[in-house]
Amino acid sequence: MKKMSKTSPKKCCPKNELLAWDLTDLYNGIDDKQINTDLETYKKSALSFAKKYKGKLEGLNAKQFYEMAKDCEDHSVLGNKIGVFAYLNMVTQMKNAKALAFYQNTSEKLNDYGLPLIFLSLEINKLPQAKIDEWLKDEKAAYFSPWLNRIRMFKKYELSESVEEILHEKSVTSGDGWQRLYEETSARLKFTVDGKEYNDSEISKLTLDKDAKVREKAGKEIARVFRENAPLFTLIYNMVVKDKAIEDVKRGFKTPVASQNLANRVDDKAVVALADTVRANYANIAHRFYRLKAKWLGVKKLEYWDRNAPLPFENDKKYSWDKAVDTVLKAYNEFSPKLYDLVKDFFNKENSWIDVPPRDGKRNGAFAMSLPDKYHPYLFLNFVGKQNDVLTLAHELGHGCHMRLSSKQGDLNDATPLTLAEVASVFGEMLTFQSLLKQAKTNQEKLCLIAGKVNDMINTAVRQIAFHFFETRVHDERRNGEVSQARLAEIWKEEMSASLGKYVNIDKVTEDNWAVVGHFFWRPFYVYAYSFADCLVNSLYQVYQNKEVKDFENKYLNMLSLTGVKKYDEILKPFGLNPKDPKFWNMGLSLISSYIDELEKLDKLIDKEQKKK
Q: Which run of H or E residues covers position 554?
């Protein structure tokens, strides 16, 4: 792994200061001369590659194919390095015009310079299967079989080279351009509560405040700001959806979700089965839980912004960064010392792989960014010390460890689909939750912890499917013309009401909150992957908890290393799980339901304890 530059301004983190990442593992800043050098190398390597291989693939023997694939991989690694640096540099300073311009200019150059390689997948898909088989008989060439198989999956949906070139060139000004406008607009939004100004990251934390009046002010302010910006977001969303529809139709995808399903390597029927199974459990899970939560908050109905509210009797514990780190490290180590060894590197202050604190201009949310194996992942947080922040840390660390394991498959082979990308993160959250639960001493503490976990599981498994149904309806209707702001609000209210139930108030105040969901804009049909992963992890965790599989730890780590090269049903076989069986999804949801059963029991016990007092 490349060592940090000695000139780094953030080589270590001063005591009591939250970690901020140091991107000098990649470049020393946007003025680093190496960036232009690397861009020029990237440009020349694409031209050289095309000159050497275009129109000549069928004549390559296995050894020559292997050399070609290695050349392609080296080109990809360099492009990833440049593109990731430009993005990570931007997301912490989205009010910095230079950072924004650098990201856009770099993206456009990478897009343009990569154009000569458009021929590659098209030409591979024109080859007879006998030629592919000939290559793969060679042991070295067979290393790239996952990459070849993935390319061949899209064979029937590819267009002519000239059309593919146009789509590639226009991507920065069509779908990508609209997505950028959404992201930049969201980052510039200002929210005011009691005379104090907040950005979108900070205001969302207020909806987790223990004071109901603070939550109400924050919730109404979020709704107000997004209502004022809804006309622009409606236009952006319509353009994103239309851009996707044009390409889907040209390629021959029968439904808007089909292209994402193919990319996820999941059968259309499996996604339908997941969505329908979750919808059938709305009442048994979400409706039942929100009835309890309304009771605990002392109201007949929860307001929309109160869904994630802490309970009134909850210990409003604030976690220091060090305590949060210790909590997560302990949970990971108890499960697997090998996993712990992967995790601890993220907290080495000499590495600076994590950006922790919320700052003005920093993007909202949290994510993990992968890079080829010669580098390392980066984690992005907005940590303010809530218990949920501890679980978010565990979540993103799961991603980081997963990326470190799977990246060893090589940059071309490692293509973990969204449905499996969330497995390690959700599992890491579960480990940390269980560790916190063991430390709980009273029924009330246990109830608060389990309620918080169920809250998150509903957000992941249930609410994301409601988002999926929202997306599906919008994309379907968009094919007949623009979808108005009023219609988007109507679909939103219908899907939210169905999923959340009668104990959550869904009204005009929050009808434009669909625009808060960035995934609708960034990656259409991403959202069901969260539910897919949550149900999968719940089933996997039950197998682990019941000690049904020997050597679970090593099999789990091996599974994470294979998510980019094998299908989801294959990697689950060692655990005795069959995700093609409809019972599989119910098994995952049953864990959430069992937690609600436990909450109902604890609720009755606490009522009895209080009556005795």
A: helix 552-562
Exposure pattern of 84-98 as b/e (b: 16+ CB <10 Å)?
A: bbbebbbbbbbeeee
H or E segment and range at residue 334: helix 321-335
Find where tokens 């991603």 sit.
Answer: 399
State how far the Cα of 372 lies from the Cα of 81, in Å rounded to an integer: 8
C-alpha–C-alpha distance, residues 399 and 404, integer Å = 9
- Paired with 369 in beta bridges are 378
The beta strand positions in 174-274, using DSSP E, are 191-193, 196-198
β-sheet bridge partners, residue 193: 196
Question: In the sheet that 354-355 helps form, which strands lie side by side, from edge to edge?
Answer: 354-355, 378-380, 367-369
- Helices and strands per DSSP (H, E), number in the chain: 27, 7
Among 450, 368, 455, which Cα is nearest to 416's?
368
Stretch 191-200: mean pLDDT:
92
Query: Average of pLDDT values for 79-100?
Result: 95
Cβ neighbourhood burial of 519 (10 Å; 0-12, 13-18, 19+): middle
Q: What is the DSSP string of 428-439?
A: HHHHHHHHHHHH
Contact (Cβ atoms closer than 8 angstroms) between residue 397 and residue 362:
no
Distance between CA atoms of 182 and 172, rounded to whole angstroms?
14
pLDDT more than 90, % of the chain: 78
Token pair listed for 194? 């009691």
Listing DSSP states for 43-73 in one string gives HHHHHHHHHHHTT-GGG--HHHHHHHHHHHH
Encode pLDDT of 114-131 as tens digits: 999 999 999 999 999 999
**Is 140 buried (19+), middle (13-18) or exposed (0-12) by CB count in 10 A?**
middle
Please tell me the distance from the alpha carbon of residue 128 to that of residue 143, in angstroms, as a whole number. Answer: 20
Interval 257-303: pLDDT, tens: 999 999 998 988 889 999 999 999 999 999 999 999 999 999 999 99
How far is it, in rounded angstroms, from Cα 425 to Cα 353? 17
Among candidate residues 419, 405, 470, 404, the one with its CA nearest the CA of residue 572? 419
What is the C-alpha separation between 145 and 141, in angstroms, rounded?
Answer: 7
The token duo for 488 is: 């988007």
For the beta carbon of residue 382, count every other beta carbon within 10 angstroms.
Answer: 22
pLDDT of residue 612: 79
Whether residue 10 is predicted with pLDDT greater than 50 in this model: the reply is: no
3-state secondary structure 366-427: CEEECCCCCCCCEEECCCCCCHHHHHHHHHHHHHHHHHHHHHHHCCCCCCCCHHHHCHHHHH
Question: What is the torsion angle, in degrees rounded to the nearest 10, for the CA atoms of residue 291, residue 293, residue 297 and residue 298?
Answer: 20
Residue in 185, 4, 166 with CA at minimum distance from that of residue 94: 185
Confidence label for 204 from pLDDT (cuts 50, 70 and 90)? confident
Per-residue pLDDT at 1? 30
With contact defined as beta carbons under 8 Å apart, do 166 and 129 qualify?
no
Per the CB < 8 A criterion, the answer to whether 30 and 99 are in contact is yes
Per-residue model confidence (pLDDT) at position 493: 97
Task: Please report where in the chains the tokens 């655990």 appear, as a residue.
Answer: 575
Whole-angstrom distance, CA of residue 177 vs CA of residue 240: 9
CA atoms of 515 and 56, how far apart (whole Å): 48
pLDDT tens readout for residues 575-587: 999 887 778 899 9
